[in-house]
Amino acid sequence: MPLEESLRDEFAVETEEHLDAIEAGLNPPSEARPAIDALFRAFHSLKGMSDAVGAAGMKALAHRAEDALGLARQGKLSVARAAPALLQAGDALRLARAALLERGEDLPPPPAVLAALSALLDPGQAPPEAPSPRAAAPPSQAAPAPDVQDPLLATLFSMLVEAAPALAAGQPQPELVEACAEMGLHRLAAQLAAPPGLPRTGRLWRMILLLAEQVGEPMPALPQAFGDAAPLLAALAAAAHDPALAGDAADAAYALGEAEAELALRRLQDLCARLPDADATAALARHEAAWAVALRHGSLAALRGLGLDSLASDDRLPADFAAALSPGATRRALAALAAGLLLYRVRAITGGAPEDEAALEFWLRGAGEVLGSILVPQSNPPQLDLLLASATAEEGLRAALALADPDKRHVLSLAPATAITLAAVPMAPVAPSLRVRQDVVDNIITLAAEMRAAAAALSDALRDPSMAAAMEAIAATEHRLGGSAARQLAAATGQINALRNRMSGADSRLGLSMRQLDEAVLELRVVPVGALFQRLPRAVRSVADGAGKPVRLELAGEDVRIDRSLIELLADPLLHLVRNAVDHGIEPAGGRGPKPAEAMVRVAAERLPGQVQITVSDDGGGIDAARVRRVAEERGLIAPGTVLSEAATHALLLRAGFSTRTEVTDVSGRGVGLDVVHDAVRRAGGHMSIASRLGEGTSFTLTLPTSAAIQPVLLVEAGGHPYAVPAGRVVSVLGAEEDAGGLPMVALEAALGLPWAPCGGMLVLERPAGRLALQVARVTRRTDLLLRPLHPGLAALPGLSAVGMLGSGEPVLVLEPDGLGG
């Protein structure tokens, strides 16, 4: 069942985000209500999206996980107990998602995972049947207009403004309904097709104003709506506790420009929606008689100012809420302050899709107690200010909110409540977001790199020594000619020099602009390295529990940003390193001597100039160098009695198939080890180093470029051809006659099988096996290369890692220092 192209990209992005949120929310599991609600919402969204694309297997699995989290939300199930089964469900959903996207195959849910989830449910009750969820609306349906400015969208906006008088008169506009439907604006299309009336006009006016913001147009002056609100008010008087009718009346008041009446009706709508809450009931009872009279009067003017209590204000409460809170809510707010609780003002969007309202409700229930709400006048879409009492610090609320509402679709702001009204504080604008396919980003990066290459070619041409030689030859000719010919030649030479100066200035400006463009373009690909770390806690816990070792994982530098392609390349190698640290590095329980019984594994990222370092360290037993050498001798990797440096001994661990374990477990002993990690790091354009002290611990440091597409290199010559050496591997540059300090030396020509050439300089290179002095015919300059994959025939050769393009368009091979020399 291949996915429609219109759904595929949206499904891929949204489901990946929800699965990542599940992984992060369960590592470690939290019993806090906001965290449980965020997990519930992620599985709920996956269920709805799976149903929308017809993936019955994913839907069934997500629904069963949702059932378990429903019990957790009721306090009947510990999240810690449910976490293993929920993580299995997340893994199974990832596999099913991949099968659906890659092969169009709807995998059935694994029976073992369903059984594990079912075991969490009350054995005396069958799991409730999954309701048929409505198709999860893509972002274009979740709001009247998408976040991206589009000429078609601007045209539609103009058509809507032009048709506003006809819309206000209730005249049908089938062409607008069709246009909105074709553009995916289904909510707007539904309102245009709805029966005419004041509520529909009010909702349309709000959507048109929101559309104006989306396309960057000034707010239009929409015509006064036609109609009488009296029938709506009469219907509301007959069913005064119906929030839907109160909302319709409020929309009608908005259409008629009755802001104060709308405020009163929104207040009534809010109280009706909160029934049977005690405060809402008390507030309705206190004002019900006045509302009934005003509603029976049938005039919006009679509603102005209703529903607001005139209470003695307390200067510890915001002035607007002090006037709006019921006596009971005011007492609870003051009691909360006396008990040391905190008051927060939350600005939230209301009147959205049911799932959006449910997501907001989930977060608020876990965050604390909502004491009251106030409609934000003239807000588009409708917004409420909520007064929240909570025992949680602001940082904790924001962390839970980031999981529950990462895109700020429901909650626009969260701030401590003060006596100053929020209306006096300017609202920070919400930064718009735009999803772009990865191949589009890759094409932009490639074009930017091609521009850099062209700019480098221009710079090389301006600095070509032959130009200076040609100018000297012209000057010499001028002296020999004499007379008018010499003067004409001198004038032409002056013009050429002036042009060269102008071109040099332009080249400098171009170089600066290209550096700024590089930084901006690369931001399109980089993501926080925390995305790489989020699966590590689960792996550490799994291996540690299986081995009976108490281990604590520490993560640092999760906000350091790295190329997305490196995240994908290093995910498995980093997982192997932390599993290796727990299984190999950490001593068995009871064998740690004076060290703390709980061992520590630390994964830290650090940003360096042009590089990122990721270090995996442990406080275990360290590497037994003598044992490593003994195993290497037994396997014939080194001759008996060979004296090796510490770096050379550690480099043996990077040999394919090398393992010091004699028994095979599900974690180690198979010979698939650090060589896989080392190979991945090399393919990423980086290198790995090892440091260890026996009895104290081991650390593995991965040094990586920030971008996998562009790499800084040092250009050298050998055999008459240019070659590139990764700049991050160059420790120093020496002259041909300088002392290399006893380092092993190798000529690049000999390493590549090229004819001998005299040495013109040396590079000291960093390698896991120890530093190496590389002799080259000439060291030219440092530059940045746009990297391309090697041809398979060249990739098999030692000493080569990639190919890049010089500014002249000439290809250049990038060397791999680990494959050079012994």
What topology does this entry show?
Layout: H1 5-25, H2 33-53, H3 56-73, H4 79-103, H5 111-120, H6 139-142, H7 151-162, H8 164-168, H9 174-182, H10 186-193, H11 198-215, H12 230-238, H13 243-255, H14 259-274, H15 278-297, H16 319-324, H17 327-338, E1 342-349, H18 354-367, E2 369-375, E3 383-390, H19 394-404, E4 411-416, H20 438-462, H21 465-481, H22 483-522, E5 526-528, H23 530-533, H24 536-547, E6 551-556, E7 561-563, H25 564-585, E8 599-608, E9 611-618, H26 625-634, H27 646-652, H28 674-683, E10 687-693, E11 697-705, E12 710-718, E13 721-726, E14 730-734, E15 745-747, H29 748-752, E16 761-765, E17 772-776, E18 778-788, H30 792-795, E19 800-805, E20 811-815
Parallel strand pairs: 6-8, 13-20, 15-17
Antiparallel strand pairs: 1-3, 1-4, 2-3, 5-7, 8-9, 9-11, 10-11, 12-13, 12-18, 14-16, 16-17, 18-19, 19-20
Helix pairs in contact: 1-2, 1-4, 2-3, 2-18, 2-19, 3-4, 3-5, 4-5, 7-11, 9-10, 11-13, 12-13, 12-15, 13-14, 14-15, 18-19, 20-22, 21-22, 24-25, 25-28, 26-27
Helix-residue proportion: 40-55%
Tally of DSSP helical segments: 30
- Which strand order does the major sheet show? 6-8-9-11-10
What's the gyration radius in Å? 34 Å
- Largest sheet, strands/sense/barrel: 5 strands, mixed
Number of strands: 20
Amino- and carboxy-terminal Cα gap: 54 Å
Low-pLDDT stretches are 123-149, 419-431
Shape: globular
Strand content: 15-25%
Mean pLDDT: 78
Structural class: alpha+beta
